[in-house]
User: Which sequence fits this backbone?
């Protein structure tokens, strides 16, 4: 239980800061146990109110204004760690000296040590753990940073901006100075120091600026930086070409660290990355890892303009930078390879994480109204749904107007901390399109449901489509209003050919996909000159993040084969299979043995026949809907039944299509040099999809052989994850081999933990406990904690939802142990217990009990308190 109820912050309470800080001079004397931080802040009054500086866990040694020591009577230290200075003048220089202990910082927020080196993480509110400061994004300042440390311990010392001198001292220390010419909020401050080596390149911007690119890693990791560097260079070029945005400093540094709470951080000129999103070579990284690196490198780089140069007024506007930057990294990746496959993967991710969030206890708008702990709002809703909303605007106004809107947004908002309204206003002005109907997407939580109905009028040769929308109620938002939904669509004739379309009132028919705008709760669209009943293809490219209802199984089957839009082809197959699986689950629950739908066999054969053209697409089309996705469609989830049905289908497909699966598997055997390009990745994905079906049908030996022969991590891991479900030596041998081979490599060892955590074997609940006690398990390392606890709770619905509640108990035990070490990670991991409303009463009661047990812990972190209490509410 909390000592006092944590405070809620409301968006409506925003007030401009009482003081601005124009320049910041920071002076660090680094020491793991006792680092001294001297700060000189040039302040200036901006509005009413006292001078209040945020702080957390800082030992204040000295405070002066304009050189004069401030007596204790003028210094108010708040219970939250903040500092209030009484009778501050309207402008002046505030100087403080504080002491902090980086080596004791297990939260990994503020300044901390990892492997003996120093790193910072300041977003959202970590800078206050380094020095006293108005730690809010609307205070933008120019920073000069001087770092002094032992020369042997910290040969490399980095901060934001450009280097501005260095030198030695007689006591064995040395110093460096960094000046960042661009004003920035405190959350973008960074410092990295230690024994690091760099991999470097240079880049010439389109206007001719020479930029030194460095990736800083620990000695020995230099051979794993090539893909990150290549991705960085491609991102820099792409942003110039597509958005006209150029890099604005002389150096761009990336430092990789293995203890890191998230993926990466976009600090100005000094990105700090989780090693997971930097280090890769074929033997250690999967194709998925390579793609993750490309995405995250691009994302952080793109923040330089969307986030850093133009930043957020307050944290409620977080999606202003995150949604827009995810949209930009999605577009970048789409341009690197297959746009359709990229879209499919993004939609898969959205449905796996964001749709459930939007339907659960933590549902919140893309722009939330309140929070207890802002760290809890770095969510799939703010990121992925936020990107979808930017995409809606892009779809509505078109690429050219969107680019004009971006130009206007940046010109107008450069070096400012702004709001989502500023972004939408720029798009509206540049396009001349009224975008007010899109604001509901930012302010309402919940996934809209779109229902379709149609009728054909033969005499009038007319086809009428009626679309209805409804946004379900979410916590704190019982009533919703309609939003603007762009529906990209087309019509097919009975033979599958695309028809030109003419809406009533239009003069001539248009070929191909067109955009319908649904802006009311219900709207009908009348199409003229339609010779025969057409088959509609709706939401092409997933033109809006909604749930589409009312499409018959017959139409889905037809669209899965014939639609001209690859997304709808994939989607129709997925929806068809989902409906089928739900029927099979229902049959099973009635005690009937569900039959096999021959359409699935036909679909698999059909997919494999055309696979050569786009193997990555074929791999997507082959994979059955995930267990979580199917369970999400049920009123009351039944994870065990869903698992049984899905496994049964996989086995049956493997048996019936064994001939073509095997032929494809053999034909795709890697020949020649291993490559990480789109086509090679697609071929491996397809081959491993075939392998999974073949193993489901009993061909375990194939996976054993692949494991033993694999020359790259993608194939090795694909085989191992199948073997992890097997019985006896087929499993134990490879798992032991994998551990022995990679025990010195943290990122690879994470995979070893995850694979076992996600196994469907009956002994997994016991195995989880054993792994938790394994000498290689370390709760303090976020990647390791996620690799076991997160992989189990989010990636193993069968065992997480075990009837006896053991899965829930394990998660709660882990969260309780982790909370005092790293509350931010504990809060992230507790989430799955919030799904209790959709479980049967017995399981729901067990889940609630574990949430109550978490909440009863003394001194629970704010973040875990918020997640657990909202989950129970
Ligand atoms: N902006 C950071 C995320 C910070 C998370 C703080 N809890 C990474 C990103 O979105 O690019
Ligand atoms: Zn981001």
Assistant:
């Amino acid at each position: 239980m909390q000592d006092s109820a944590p405070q809620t912050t409301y968006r409506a309470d925003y007030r401009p800061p009482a003081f601005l800080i124009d320049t910041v001079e920071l002076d660090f004397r680094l020491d793991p146990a006792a680092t001294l931080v001297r700060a000189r802040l040039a302040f200036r009054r901006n509005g009413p109110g006292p001078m209040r500086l945020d702080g957390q866990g800082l030992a204040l040694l000295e405070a002066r204004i304009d050189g004069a020591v401030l007596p204790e009577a003028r210094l108010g230290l708040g219970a939250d760690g903040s500092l209030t200075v009484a009778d501050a003048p309207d402008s002046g220089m505030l100087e403080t000296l504080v002491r902090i202990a980086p080596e004791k910082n297990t939260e990994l927020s503020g300044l901390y040590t990892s492997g003996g080196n120093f790193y910072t993480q300041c977003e959202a509110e970590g800078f206050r753990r380094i020095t006293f400061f108005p730690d809010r994004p609307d205070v933008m300042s120019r920073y000069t940073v001087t770092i002094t440390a032992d020369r042997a311990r910290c040969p490399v010392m980095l901060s934001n901006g450009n280097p501005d001198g260095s030198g030695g001292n007689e006591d064995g220390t040395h110093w460096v100075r960094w000046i960042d010419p661009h004003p920035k909020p405190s959350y973008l401050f960074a410092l990295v120091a230690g024994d690091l080596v760099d991999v470097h390149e240079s880049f010439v911007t389109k206007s001719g600026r020479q930029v030194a690119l460095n990736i800083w890693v620990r000695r020995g990791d230099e051979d794993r930086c090539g893909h990150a560097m290549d991705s960085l260079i491609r991102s820099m070029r792409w942003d110039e070409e597509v958005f006209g945005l150029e890099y604005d400093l002389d150096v761009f540094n990336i430092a990789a660290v293995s203890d890191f709470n998230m993926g990466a951080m976009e600090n100005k000129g000094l990105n700090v990355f989780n090693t997971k999103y930097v280090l890769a070579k074929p033997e250690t990284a999967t194709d998925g890892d390579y793609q993750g690196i490309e995405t995250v490198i691009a994302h952080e780089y793109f923040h330089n303009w969307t986030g850093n140069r133009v930043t957020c007024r307050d944290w409620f506007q977080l999606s202003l930078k995150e949604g827009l930057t995810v949209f930009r990294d999605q577009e970048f990746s789409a341009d690197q390879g297959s746009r359709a496959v990229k879209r499919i993967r993004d939609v898969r991710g959205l449905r796996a994480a964001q749709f459930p969030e939007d339907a659960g206890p933590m549902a919140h708008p893309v722009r939330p109204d309140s929070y207890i702990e802002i760290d809890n709002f770095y969510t799939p809703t703010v990121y992925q749904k936020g990107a979808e909303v930017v995409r809606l605007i892009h779809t509505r106004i078109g690429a050219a107007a969107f680019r004009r809107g971006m130009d206007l947004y940046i010109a107008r908002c450069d070096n400012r901390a702004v709001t989502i309204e500023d972004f939408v206003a720029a798009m509206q002005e540049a396009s001349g399109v009224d975008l007010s109907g899109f604001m509901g997407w930012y302010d309402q939580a919940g996934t809209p449901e779109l229902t379709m109905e149609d009728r054909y009028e033969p005499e009038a040769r007319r086809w009428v489509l009626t679309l209805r929308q409804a946004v379900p109620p979410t916590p704190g938002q019982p009533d919703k209003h309609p939003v603007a939904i762009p529906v990209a669509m087309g019509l097919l004739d009975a033979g599958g050919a695309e028809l030109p379309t003419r809406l009533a009132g239009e003069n001539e028919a248009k070929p191909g996909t067109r955009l319908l705008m649904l802006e009311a709760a219900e709207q009908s669209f009348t199409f003229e000159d339609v010779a025969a009943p057409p088959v509609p293809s709706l939401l092409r490219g997933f033109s809006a993040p909604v749930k589409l209802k009312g499409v018959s199984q017959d139409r889905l089957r037809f669209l899965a084969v014939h639609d001209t839009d690859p997304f709808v082809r994939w989607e129709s197959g997925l929806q068809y299979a989902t409906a089928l699986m739900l029927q099979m689950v229902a049959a099973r629950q009635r005690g009937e043995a569900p039959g096999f739908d021959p359409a699935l066999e036909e679909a698999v054969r059909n997919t494999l026949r055309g696979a050569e053209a786009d193997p990555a697409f074929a791999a997507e089309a082959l994979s059955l809907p995930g267990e979580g996705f199917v369970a999400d469609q049920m009123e009351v989830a039944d994870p065990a039944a869903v698992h049984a049905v899905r496994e049964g289908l996989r086995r049956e497909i493997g048996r019936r299509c064994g001939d073509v699966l095997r032929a494809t598997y053999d034909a795709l055997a890697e020949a020649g040099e291993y490559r990480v390009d789109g086509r090679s990745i697609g071929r491996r994905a397809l081959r491993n999809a075939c392998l999974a079906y073949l193993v489901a049908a009993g061909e375990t030996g194939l996976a054993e052989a692949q494991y033993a022969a694999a020359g790259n991590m993608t194939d090795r891991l694909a085989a191992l994850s199948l073997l992890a479900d097997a019985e006896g030596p087929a499993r134990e041998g490879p798992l032991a081999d994998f551990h022995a081979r990679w025990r010195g490599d943290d990122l690879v060892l994470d995979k070893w933990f995850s694979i076992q955590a996600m196994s469907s074997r009956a002994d997994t609940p016991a195995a989880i406990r054993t792994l938790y006690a394994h000498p290689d398990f370390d709760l303090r390392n976020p990647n390791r904690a996620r690799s076991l606890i997160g992989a189990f709770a989010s990636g193993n619905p069968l065992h997480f939802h075990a009837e006896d509640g053991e899965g829930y108990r394990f998660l709660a035990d882990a969260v309780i142990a982790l909370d005092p070490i790293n509350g931010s990670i504990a809060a992230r991991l507790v989430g799955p217990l919030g799904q209790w409303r959709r479980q049967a009463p017995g399981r729901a009661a067990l889940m609630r009990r574990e949430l109550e047990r978490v909440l009863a812990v003394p001194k629970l972190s704010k973040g875990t308190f918020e997640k657990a209490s909202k989950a129970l509410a």
In short: DSSP finds 27 helices and 33 strands in the chain.
